[in-house]
Design goal:
Strand content: 35-45%
Helix content: 25-40%
Oligomer: single chain
Shape: rod-shaped
Length: about 190
């Protein structure tokens, strides 16, 4: 038995696309740089070192003194010797006042006055050690530096941009198709 049939046959449409890529060119010229910096301001202040050498004691050890110092020392020595002589005279007077106690006081005093003085002698250095006085004050350096700012006159250049748009073409590669057939349609 033949049953009537409808036969449908379809074909899908197909799209064709063609593209051309976009082209972009960027060119960046170098910037113009102008940098300038003034010299820093420098202020320097120095305090000179100071060396002091005092050799007055060394000269005095060699008996090369000023007139004023020699006079002062002679006056002091004379005063000491005067006090010592006064003390000795007073002591001898006291001894003579007590002559009644016996002893040979006058002979003892004469013997003391007749003796030669003894002098202590030792090795001496002229001038004496460390008689030259040295004093040193170190110098100083004060420095003040004031830096100057950098003057920046840089000019930026804009980039050159060239772009070409891409292109897309769309077309039909295959048309849609629909076929309908009727089979076994006999009445």
């Amino acid at each position: 038995m033949n049953i009537p049939q409808i036969r449908i046959q379809s074909q899908s449409a197909k799209i064709a696309m063609e593209t051309s890529a976009p082209v972009q060119t960027i060119e960046q010229p170098h910037a113009q740089m102008q940098l300038h910096q003034e010299n820093a301001h420098i202020t320097m202040e120095t305090i000179k070192p100071r060396l002091t050498i005092d050799q007055s004691q060394a000269w005095a050890d060699m008996n090369l003194k000023s007139v004023f110092r020699m006079n002062a020392e002679a006056a002091q020595r004379s005063e000491q010797e005067w006090f010592q002589e006064m003390a000795e005279s007073s002591q001898e007077g006291d001894e003579l006042m007590m002559i009644e106690h016996g002893g040979n006081v006058m002979a003892a005093q004469a013997e003391r006055h007749g003796e030669l003085p003894t002098y202590d002698f030792n090795i001496g250095y002229i001038p004496s050690n460390f008689s030259v006085k040295v004093h040193f004050e170190p110098g100083r350096l004060y420095m003040d530096v004031t830096p100057q700012k950098v003057v920046n006159n840089t000019q930026v250049r804009k980039p050159y941009i060239d772009s070409q748009r891409g292109h897309v073409s769309i077309g039909m590669r295959q048309q849609a198709n629909l076929q309908i057939d009727f089979v076994n349609l006999q009445v």
